[in-house]
Task: inverse folding
């Protein structure tokens, strides 16, 4: 079943006086539930722009994005915020944890925003962190953890929200190859275990190999 | 809403250094304001007390027209009856009567113009503190019609000392010359030129005889339990005496408009200081809160990205400011009131400025006085300011572009 569908998606950035950049030139694709999908391509191919639009962080210049058959481009700013909170999980390249919260608190935070009860938040945060192999790191702050550990916390935070899809923009870019591989394996396990769709961008061939499907972008278009 | 409050509280706890900075700005600002206002209120209280207790009293009763034209002919009839009528007003502490007129005082060597005051010493000491300013000699008793008390500067001008004879001359009620010789029984040292140079005290009995003012008096002076009751007591006295249309009842403010104007000027000045402090505190808080928002740009970007509503960001920053404002206010209140209370007991030593202060009826030691309405005004002003200045940073944080904010360092 289609989880996400894009129809002729275009994105143009105005970067200066009369200077425009066409980041996406007409992307049409379909993504099903439980997919483990890589968006691959060199720098400047439009990977981040596409992921920003799929995750409703940004809006296309033209075209549609259907999520569970509903056009998210017609949502207002608050509806988009709710959409991201409840349907999308984020794993950023630079981990983007809140530095003054512990691993446990970072994972709990998103459930706090969702308004979940205290007991549920605490039990779930602990369980998820244990699942990603950080059961002994609950009270560590991000600056007390390695890059790989921080990224695992980011994955745990993304899962805690119980999203339909987790979007990860170059999640392994700041990790060494061994750690990157372990992270990808974790994400694959969670994909199979929980049925969450994973969409991640990469230009690393080793990471691409882990994906069940690859969409290659070049100059803002899908390479055939 | 509860979630936002909880998150806001956590943010304050986790950023101890930034929170302490903001709380300190609010706390010290408010503490300084409370103390400054208490200091000024204490000085005002002293001014009024010293002025009214020296000779004036809180309220005076005269025959209509006397204040514009203080002559013997405008005397009060049946003063004892009037005193009896108003004596039972609970706010009144003590009442006395005085005969007052201008005259000439002479010694063997010199003479000078004076105000001659005929007083009832036993009642006068309950209304004014004049008898406590006798630096040498002693106060006469009420039946004594042969002695006189003058100020130290007048005594110096006349070159007289205790026990020597002084003559006073004036015009009696019937128009005849009133002259009398009195023995100098005491010398006043009040520090107030007007009194030390220009007043001569004799007993009310002696003044009645000298000026043919039997059973008559020029003024009735009243001391209240506190200067705060002046307006209320004045109205109650007017009510009691409303049948007597010939009397005018004056408060100390009407008798000495200049002192009242000094105090009003000071009050205006303190309001300016309040606003300056509020602006400074406001700028301090705005600076800290805005700095905090800019430092947390990436964090706000992440929150917006993962699904936090913009209004939730606004609420979060606003609640943080509310908490910081409340804690800072409590700190400021404790600081300001404790320092004020301490100095209200030990006093603030301003001996260096004694001469200048005395001319405003202020002593060298000032005792700050806390007034509830002023404290409340200070608290509300600072609290409202600390919350209001968070509005701009809150909206700034809420309107960040999450993609750009996440990329910021």
Result:
């Amino acid at each position: 079943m289609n989880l996400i569908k894009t129809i002729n998606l275009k994105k143009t950035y105005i970067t200066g006086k009369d200077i425009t950049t066409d980041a996406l030139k007409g992307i049409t694709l379909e993504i099903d539930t439980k997919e483990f999908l890589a968006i691959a391509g060199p720098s400047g191919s439009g990977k981040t722009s596409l992921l920003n639009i799929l995750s409703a962080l940004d809006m296309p210049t033209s075209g549609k994005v259907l999520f569970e058959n509903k056009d998210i481009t017609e949502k207002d700013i608050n509806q988009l915020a709710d959409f991201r909170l409840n349907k999308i999980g984020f794993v950023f390249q630079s981990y983007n944890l809140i530095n003054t919260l512990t691993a446990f608190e970072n994972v709990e935070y998103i459930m706090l925003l969702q308004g979940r009860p205290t007991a549920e938040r605490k039990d779930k945060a602990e369980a998820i962190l244990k699942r990603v192999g950080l059961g002994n790191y609950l009270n560590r702050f991000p600056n007390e953890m390695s890059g790989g550990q921080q990224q695992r916390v980011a994955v745990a935070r993304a899962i805690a929200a119980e999203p339909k899809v987790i979007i990860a923009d170059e999640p392994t870019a700041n990790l060494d190859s061994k750690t990157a591989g372990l992270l990808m394996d974790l994400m694959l396990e969670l994909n199979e275990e929980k049925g969450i769709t994973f969409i991640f961008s990469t230009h690393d061939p080793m990471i691409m190999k882990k994906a069940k499907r690859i969409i290659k972008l070049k100059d803002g278009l899908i390479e055939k | 809403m509860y979630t936002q409050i909880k998150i806001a509280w956590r943010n304050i706890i986790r950023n101890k250094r930034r929170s302490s900075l903001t709380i300190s700005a609010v706390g010290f600002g408010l503490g300084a304001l409370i103390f400054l206002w208490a200091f000024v209120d204490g000085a005002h209280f002293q001014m009024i007390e010293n002025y009214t207790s020296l000779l004036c009293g809180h309220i005076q009763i005269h025959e209509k027209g006397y204040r514009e034209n203080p002559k013997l002919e405008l005397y009060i009839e049946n003063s004892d009856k009037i005193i009896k009528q108003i004596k039972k007003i609970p706010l009144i502490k003590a009442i006395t009567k005085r005969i007052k007129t201008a005259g000439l005082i002479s010694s063997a060597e010199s003479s000078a113009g004076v105000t001659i005051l005929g007083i009832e010493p036993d009642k006068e000491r309950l209304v004014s503190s004049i008898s406590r300013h006798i630096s040498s000699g002693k106060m006469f008793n009420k039946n004594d019609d042969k002695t006189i008390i003058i100020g130290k500067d007048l005594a110096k001008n006349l070159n007289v000392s205790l026990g020597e004879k002084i003559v006073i001359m004036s015009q009696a009620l019937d128009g005849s010359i009133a002259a009398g010789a009195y023995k100098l029984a005491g010398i006043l040292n009040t520090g107030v030129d007007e009194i030390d140079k220009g007043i001569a005290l004799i007993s009310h009995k002696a003044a009645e005889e000298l000026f043919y003012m039997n059973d008559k008096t020029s003024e009735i002076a009243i001391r209240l339990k506190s200067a705060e009751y002046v307006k209320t007591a004045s109205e109650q006295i007017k009510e009691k005496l409303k049948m007597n249309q010939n009397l005018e009842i004056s408060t100390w403010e009407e008798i000495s408009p200049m002192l009242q104007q000094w105090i009003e000027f000071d009050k205006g000045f303190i309001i300016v200081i309040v606003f300056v402090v509020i602006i400074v505190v406001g700028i301090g808080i705005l600076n800290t809160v805005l700095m905090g928002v800019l430092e947390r740009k990436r964090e706000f970007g992440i929150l917006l990205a993962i699904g936090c509503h913009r209004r939730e960001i606004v609420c979060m920053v606003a609640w943080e400011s509310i908490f910081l404002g409340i804690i800072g206010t409590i700190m400021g209140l404790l600081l300001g009131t404790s320092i004020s209370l301490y100095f209200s007991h030990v006093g603030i030593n301003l001996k260096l400025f004694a001469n200048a202060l005395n001319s405003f009826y202020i002593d060298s030691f000032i005792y700050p006085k806390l007034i509830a309405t002023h404290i409340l005004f200070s608290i509300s002003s600072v609290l409202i300011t600390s919350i209001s200045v968070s509005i701009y940073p809150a909206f700034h944080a809420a309107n960040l572009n999450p993609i750009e904010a996440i990329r910021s360092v």
